[in-house]
């Protein structure tokens, strides 16, 4: 009988403990569910935002390590030449890069720089007249901006001297001791009259004032183009006071 009573008491105690745990579990579960519903999206949003920011910072740091590609630098390029071809050389700031050469807006050559980031391209063929040369640097799939335009005049002919005034053999009298020497040459040409530089406009018209001496006066007109080719014309006028 004693053992039976002890068993009944033990069963009641276990039952009471189970009820207490159930009473604690149910409210706790309700609270956790409510908290998940209310705070869950915010927590997920916070985690997602943090991950996005972390990836952005990582990508930005990665981008900052990518080399910025700059255009090549040239050694001095002639503004004019009487040769049909020219050689150009220069350097870049990018290793293992390729320099692309454009002439008159058309790609005409490309070359890989050497271990010193230097390059040289020979025998670039020019067209007669004005040429526009530019270049850019290429590293893998990245390209620099183009260099500025370099103007190169290729001419085979010496400059012209036409429409000269006064004419050869002209005579001047008192009051005409200072005369105006004028004529026409090619654009972008330098003109001197008896060694003094004349004014040349954009169309090639030139003029210079000259004071005559009594008797015969020889006037030497010299035109020099940018390629170094020269043309000389001489006239003689007479001044009688």
Description:
The strands form 4 sheets. Strands 2, 4, 5, 7, 8 and 9 form a 6-stranded mixed β-sheet that branches. The model is unreliable at about 60-65 (pLDDT under 50). Helix content is about 25%, strand content about 40%. The chain has one helix spanning about 1-65, and strands at about 75, 80, 85-90, 100-105, 105-110, 120-125, 130-140, 140-145, 150-155, 160-165, 170-175, 180-185, 190-195, 195, 200, 205-210, 215-225, 230-240. The chain has 3 domains: about 1-65; about 75-155, Immunoglobulins (Immunoglobulin-like, Sandwich); about 160-240, Sandwich (Immunoglobulin-like). The chain is of the alpha+beta class and about 240 residues long.
- Number of helical segments? 1
Radius of gyration based on Cα positions:
45 Å
What is the CATH architecture annotation of the largest domain?
A: Sandwich
Distance between the termini: 167 Å
Q: Approximately how much beta-strand content do the residues carry? A: 35-45%
Percent of residues in helical segments? 25-40%
Main sheet? 6 strands, mixed
* Number of beta-strand segments: 18
Name the overall outline. elongated
Uncertain parts: 61-65
Q: Which CATH C-level class of the largest domain is it?
A: Mainly Beta
CATH superfamily membership of the largest domain? Immunoglobulins
What integer is the average pLDDT?
84
């Amino acid at each position: 009988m004693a053992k039976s009573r002890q068993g009944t008491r033990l069963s009641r105690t276990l039952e009471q403990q189970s009820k207490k745990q159930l009473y604690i579990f149910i409210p706790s579960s309700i609270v956790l569910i409510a908290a998940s519903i209310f705070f869950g999206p915010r927590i997920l949003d916070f985690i997602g935002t943090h991950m996005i920011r972390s990836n952005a910072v990582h990508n930005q740091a990665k981008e900052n390590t990518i080399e910025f590609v700059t255009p090549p630098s040239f050694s001095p390029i002639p503004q004019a030449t009487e040769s049909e071809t020219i050689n150009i050389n220069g350097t870049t700031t990018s290793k293992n890069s390729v320099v692309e050469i454009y002439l008159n807006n058309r790609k005409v050559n490309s070359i890989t720089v050497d271990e010193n980031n230097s390059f040289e391209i020979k025998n670039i063929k020019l067209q007669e007249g004005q040429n526009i040369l530019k270049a850019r640097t290429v590293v893998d799939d990245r390209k620099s901006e183009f260099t500025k335009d370099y103007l190169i005049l290729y001419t085979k002919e010496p400059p012209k001297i036409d429409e000269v005034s006064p004419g050869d053999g002209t005579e001047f009298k008192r009051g005409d001791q200072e005369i105006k020497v004028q004529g026409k040459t090619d654009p972008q040409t330098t003109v001197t009259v008896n060694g003094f530089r004349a004014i040349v406009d954009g169309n090639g018209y030139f003029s210079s004032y000259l004071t005559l001496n009594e008797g015969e006066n020889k006037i030497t007109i010299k035109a020099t183009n940018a390629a170094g080719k020269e043309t000389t014309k001489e006239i003689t006028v007479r001044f009688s006071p």
